[in-house]
Request: fold
Amino acid sequence: MFKTVALAVLMAASCAANAAHNTWDFSYTGFLDEGSGEFLADYTISGSFSGSDSNRDGVLDKSEIFSLVLNGMNFVACAADSNANYHCGTDVFNYRIGGALQFEAGLFGYDNEGYSGGGYSFTSGKSEIDYSYSPNHYMRNARLWTDATHFSITPAWSGSVLPVPEPSTWSMLLIGMGFASFAAIRRRRAAPFRDHTR
Reply:
């Protein structure tokens, strides 16, 4: 009986620990180069994010995501590195599952005097900008969203986690544990009776 119950408890704990999040891959293709005025039809911003709709309202907000990767950098994880002269992070995030994605993320830094610095920012639906400056230099490159910018997103399970179980799944698991325990108890009680009748 102990082995049966222990196995069921381990399965439940595993489900609870792994029912963490889903991962979505997305891309935007086609941007207007601010400097040249040229439309860059093949220019792509790609990324992914993972999260869990914990309140089940059909929307992932900033508090419900665990990662936001843009062009290879995780703008959730990098927030831990921010300090007085450097900021990195996701300032805005909202994804209506199966619908629109909105986010603002980036990084910037500067020296103690503020004479030189630079940064990189994404604002979905608006722009991707990188810039740098110093007393003798200023550089800004911007790619702007247009009506021709194509958005694509693909829901996919993360390879290391399971989808969040529905309440009915937990109920079935508990009922199954109960039946397994009941059957084990009956077998244990029946065994001595059969032995004494020999």
User: Anything to note?
Assistant: The helical segments are 2-18, 167-196. The CA atoms of residues 66 and 194 lie 57 Å apart. The first strand starts at residue 22 and ends at 33.
